[in-house]
Specification:
globular, Rossmann fold, 12 strands, ABC_transporter-like_CS, alpha/beta, disordered C terminus, 10 helices, six-stranded mixed β-sheet, AAA+_ATPase, nucleotide-binding, 278 residues, ATP-binding
């Protein structure tokens, strides 16, 4: 379980990116972080693995307080947290397999990784993961020859190779077309169920959050303003998160697109939205 207690991030300018955010994410739960740009979603994810240092508060992964660890202890603890990036963070000149194996760097020494000397069981596990994400025929292809969806699948396999307890996912569909976005979100959801992984996903697409997340967490100006089930999102709650808007009609400017989906219940289909650039 991931636990945040009164997590706060204040910059040297005095501005707060997060203000006293408290959450618990149990194993197996997929939680979607939604909110306008600048709400603190990416900051929250990066405070968990301390890519951004919190100013106040505590972060626990199981019984381990991550905010109290030394640099050496933190390197070991990061093995338990898989990070999936918006821009994939792949090394373009390396092959798909080499990029996936880089997920094992937290367990191996520098020189073994430099000379690509990974234990055979780890290589076999990497191959199984590539099969699971549908890339078994791309093992020797360079990363820069892949499509966006394929690159994201490599990033997912790389994160899973370190056998994490939680996935921290930062805008996984921001650069993908609608069909590929659904495939990626469905894959993340399935893998979390299969492996009983907790996941926090920073996502702008409210429709995708409703379809694939177990829980919706709304941030606005660094504060927690909603924490509940996807079906609870209505016009009032969306206004609380994003601000005033006619949520029952498509925006003439195209900033907010209303999406009717047959898989979404009739009760909240009218507010199933894609906040593409909010």
């Amino acid at each position: 379980m991931l636990t945040l207690k009164q997590l706060t991030k204040r910059y040297t300018t005095g501005d707060k990116a997060l203000t006293s955010v408290s959450l618990e994410i149990p194993a197996g739960q997929v939680a979607a972080l939604i909110g306008p740009s600048g709400a603190g979603k990416s900051t929250l994810i990066r405070c968990v693995n301390r890519l951004v240092e919190p100013t106040e508060g505590q972060v626990f992964l199981g019984d381990t307080e991550l905010t109290g660890l030394s640099s050496r202890q933190l390197r070991r603890a990061r093995r338990r947290m898989g990070m999936i990036f918006q821009e994939y963070a792949l090394i373009d000149r390396l092959t798909v397999m080499e990029n996936v194996l880089s997920g094992y760097l937290g367990y191996t020494g520098f020189w073994r990784s430099y000379f690509r000397r990974y234990p055979q069981p780890v290589v076999q596990q990497a191959f199984k993961l590539l099969q699971r994400v549908g890339l078994e025929n791309f093992i020797d292809k360079r990363a820069d020859a892949l499509s966006g969806g394929q690159r994201q699948r490599v990033g997912i396999a790389r994160a899973l190779l370190q056998s994490p307890e939680i996935l921290l996912v930062d805008e996984p569909t921001a650069s993908l077309d609608p069909k590929t976005s659904r495939q990626i979100m469905r894959l993340i959801k399935e893998l979390c169920v299969e492996r009983q992984l907790a996941a926090i996903i920073n996502i702008h697409d409210v429709q995708l959050a409703q379809l694939f997340a177990d829980r919706i967490i709304g941030l606005r100006a660094g504060q927690l303003v909603f924490d509940g089930q996807p079906e609870q999102l209505d016009a009032e709650i969306l206004t609380r998160i994003y601000g005033e808007e006619d949520w029952n009609h498509a925006s003439e400017s195209g900033d907010v697109e209303e999406v009717m989906d047959p898989s979404v219940s009739q009760n909240h289909a009218q507010v199933t939205l894609r906040a593409a650039s909010v």
